[in-house]
Amino acid sequence: MPTGPLMNSEFYPGWLTHWGEDMHRVSKDAVVSTLRDMLAINANVNFYMFFGGTNFEFTAGANSGVGYQPDITSYDYDAPLSEAGDPTPKYYAIRDVLEEYYPETKKIPRPVASEKGAYGVVSLKPVVELLSPEGRDSLGTRYRDVAGAKLPTFEAMRQRAGLLLYETKIPASNDTSLSRLLHVAKPHDRVYVYADGKLQGMLSRMHGLLSLPLDARDGATLSLLVESQGRINFGSLLHDFKGILSDVLLDSVTLAGDWTLLGYPLQNIPDFNGTIIEHKEGSLNDGPVIYEGNLILPEGQEPKDSFLNPTGWGKGYVWINGHNLGRYWPSVGPQVTLYTPGVWLKPGKNQIRVLELQSSPVGLTMTFVDEPILDLQRPLGNDKDNK
């Protein structure tokens, strides 16, 4: 209506961030200037977001503006209240403006940030390889075998998120060379490629990596471990199916034989009863590995919120006392730390489980710190080096 009522239903004090981008920031001066302009004409205002929070577990989504753009785990959004619910300088600046227009709000106490816990280093030990017989039995869900070029998606298997393993035998050919070219036009979203159990490389929807040289003989087992990186949740591409959505081509020939499917929903990680396997630092050429460790907190003290720093690790997920903190990917950033709510911690022993997909550091540790790291400064070319 030309005369009102006036309403800004989505006033953005910040913005969301995708992996590989710089953290989106909007200055407090810009926010309060626009807020003043709206209040001056008696407009109604709804902040989106005033508090963003966290995309725990597998709930981080994605966009499709310029290719496929998966969201980081944090939904801090540079909002007036931080990911941990703390007031920021932007919050106080907004409040100052509101108190000018609505003096009665001055009576409301001003909040302060909660104290955080810098709980230090946690040592981790490898307990099982995801693609080993034990890993398949304890973590995998066997689906029906299929034959032909059209492979089932996550959705066809009623699997919401996690990983899905497709396996087939490379058929006989007249080519005596071990060097082949694998091509998947629609990998949704990230594919870890193995031949006879050895990592060959990765395909990536995000980075547009659709082909890969393959060192494999006739009769070798080809394993395609597909990771869902988050569903598109805005725009015209909402039907964002996950898995292999196109033919799998080897030297331009469709692999249309028998395929086995094994799902890893990763809803619950079982107890491996203290087993330890050999630590292989660097690239995990035999497949993803689950690591375990314990965070010991003082008895008689209420745990504080904290932030888990996985610097040095590759890409994966963390569970604390059974709660999935979400995805980490510090080599790509900009998010490094994972917000850890104090209500998910307890005095005494807290169980930490890590599923690492790509590579592990020399020292198998992660650190609980008292400040978030969401603005990793990445050197030029870092995206390419860490695809």
TrEMBL record:
Beta-galactosidase galactose-binding domain location: 288-350
Annotated ranges, domain Glycoside hydrolase 35 catalytic: 2-100
Coiled-coil region list: none
UniProt KW Hydrolase keyword: yes
Keywords per UniProt: Glycosidase, Hydrolase
A single BP term in Gene Ontology: carbohydrate metabolic process
Lineage: superkingdom: Eukaryota
MF GO annotations: hydrolase activity, hydrolyzing O-glycosyl compounds
Entry-linked InterPro entries: BetaGal1-like_ABD1 (IPR048912), BetaGal_gal-bd (IPR048913), Galactose-bd-like_sf (IPR008979), GH (IPR017853), Gly_Hdrlase_35_cat (IPR031330), Glycoside_Hdrlase_35 (IPR001944)
Beta-galactosidase 1-like first all-beta domain sequence ranges: 153-265
Pfam families for the chain: BetaGal_ABD_1, BetaGal_gal-bd, Glyco_hydro_35
Membrane-spanning ranges: none
Family: Belongs to the glycosyl hydrolase 35 family.
Protein name listed in UniProt: Beta-galactosidase
Organism from which the protein derives: Eumeta variegata (Bagworm moth)
Lineage per the UniProt record: Eukaryota, Metazoa, Ecdysozoa, Arthropoda, Hexapoda
Gene name of the encoded protein: GLB1
